[in-house]
Amino acid sequence: SGAELLHIGAGDPPIKKENQDAVKVLLDYGPEGNATLALCLDGHGPHGLLVARKALEFFEQHTQRVIADPLGQLSGLFAECNAFLSDCPQVGFRSRMSGATASLVLIVDQIVY
Q: CA triplet 93, 96, 102: central angle to 5 degrees?
């Protein structure tokens, strides 16, 4: 399940028009259902929300393959996501002037990565 706030900031109109965060927590994750994946992406720039959502989708789909070796492969997944957002035409927007800060927590068999 996931949740997001649509508007943030004080004032009328709000200082920031849109919350560009994408958040998701997946329980019983992975091929054996022995993992939990928590993702929080803070988008920024003109397409920050779209970048955050695309990155969230990428991590949700590709983190399963690193469950067997999180220490050895998790950092490489961030580089792959960056390349996907930068070079992939199906993203649907120019991501060069936008981005997202990604926080990922992977728990496998009660070990936190």
A: 95
Question: Using only C-alpha atoms, what is the Rg of the chain?
Answer: 15
This model's pTM is above 0.85 = no
Cα dihedral 51→46→25→83 (10° resolution): 20
What is the predicted pLDDT for the residue at 8?
A: 54
Band of pLDDT at residue 88, cut at 50, 70 and 90: low
- Cross-strand bridge partners of residue 111: 108
